[in-house]
Amino acid sequence: MTRRAVITGIGLVTPLGSGRERSWSSLVEGKSGIRRFEHFDGSRLKTQFGGEVPDFEPGPHFDKPTLRRTDRYTQMAVVASAEAVQDSGLSLPLADPKKIGVVLGVALGGLSSLEHHHRDLLDKGPDRMNPYMVPMMLANTAPGLLGIRHHARGPNYTVTSACASGAQAIGESLELIRRGVCDAVISGGVESTLTELCVSGFCAMRALSTRNDAPARASRPFSLTRDGFVIAEGAGIVIIEELEHARARGAKIYAEVAGYGASGDAHHLTAPHPEGEGMALAMQGALASAGLSASDIDHVNCHATSTPVGDAGEVMGLRRVFGAHADSLSLTAVKSMIGHTLGAAGGIETAVLALTIQRGVITPTINQDDPDPACALGIVSEAREQRVRAALKNSFGFGGTNTSLVLRSLA
Length: 411
Prior knowledge:
Layout: E1 5-14, E2 17-18, H1 20-28, E3 35-36, E4 49-50, H2 64-68, H3 72-88, E5 100-105, H4 111-124, H5 133-137, H6 141-150, E6 156-159, H7 165-178, E7 184-191, H8 196-204, E8 234-242, H9 243-248, E9 255-264, H10 277-290, E10 299-301, H11 308-322, E11 330-332, H12 335-338, H13 345-359, E12 361-362, E13 384-385, E14 390-397, E15 401-408
Parallel strand pairs: 5-6, 5-7, 10-11, 10-14
Antiparallel strand pairs: 1-2, 1-8, 1-9, 3-4, 7-8, 9-15, 12-13, 14-15
């Protein structure tokens, strides 16, 4: 009998604030978390705004020495995971600690720490380097620290697949549950790379919106005037648990993680396949993994970064997979409000989708005053109540990496 996996806990740190309920209520209200950069001087950049997490306070979760030797991305993972574990009611450590794993998605890791220590090298020389430089920058430091904190001795690793990382980590966690390796996995995605180096690199690619005069209106997925994505930071952590294990302890269940599909475009390092072929393969794989047909899906939480090619490619992929049923789908793009959190995006958006399924409310896609006819599907522009039986979560990344998840209600 196939083991099934469900989400029993959620923790969020987003540009709308720290905490699941704070982020959720702002999303439902259609608020934007995009503003001009405050944590560093972006005045030299073509893009001077993004999705910074406001008033982030990791201090209560760390002693002072540990706080000094952890990167901001790791701190966000710790804060979000603490909320997720508490929300799940899971008593850690488990009787058998090797049955709980930690699998996180991270695209770039501790980039800000790398930049900081490189400046130290240039200014002070190699003999003055911080001995914690390497663990601060490593992409697997976050899951390692979570494993220590929650006494999780099962598989512990980072999935690094650019902007698909968070969703792919959840997909891999599903497989660990199905194979009987784990009874629970702390999973999701985290990223904090809002630095002059990182933003200037994306600017050089002409990947970012340059609406410096109206940051809150810059992330506009499926809009005719979209001009690039809005870079952001954050963390979305979910507790993935084997269904009977969760039921045995009377756990609250948000949704089942029912399917996982992954593919490669084999097309271009930074541009998606123009007709969405690779995206469609991932969606089809997720449906097959879940044992569902296209007509079973009610809703799609889209990747939708607000780039001209990416949004159009996703719509073409959806039409390839769903055919005439595509016109019956409701679509939403969380990035319209929080920007693109890179490796964290799939974690945050999967958490939002689980809340949508549990609460029967679809969050809106804002900035839809000039919809693109080429992306004409059922885009939800104002929050609305809707029972979602089964839904698709798409995440795509540089390198042509595609991941899709299927979540469904157990109610």
